[in-house]
Write a structure and sequence with these properties.
Layout (H helix, E strand, L loop, with lengths): L10 H29 L1 H14 L2 H6 L2
Length: 64
């Protein structure tokens, strides 16, 4: 008696495992791109602009 992994029709299992192995590197690439985008000069400038709109100058300068 043979198990399903060693059966003759295991080509579907192998093909689906290739797709599954592509997911972790894709997530890693997405994480790196998000990290680069969210910590770059543009992101810092955007955070400064958002802070200027959110908090009035008097409140922001009171903490200094």
């Amino acid at each position: 008696m043979r198990g399903s992994i060693v059966a003759d029709d295991s080509a579907g299992f192998v093909a689906s495992s290739h797709t599954a192995w592509a997911v972790p590197p894709g997530c890693g690439i997405a994480t790196v791109l998000l990290g680069l985008t969210s910590t770059g000069r543009w992101a810092r400038a955007q955070a400064e602009r958002s802070g200027n709109r959110t908090f009035p100058t008097a409140i922001r300068d009171a903490g200094r």
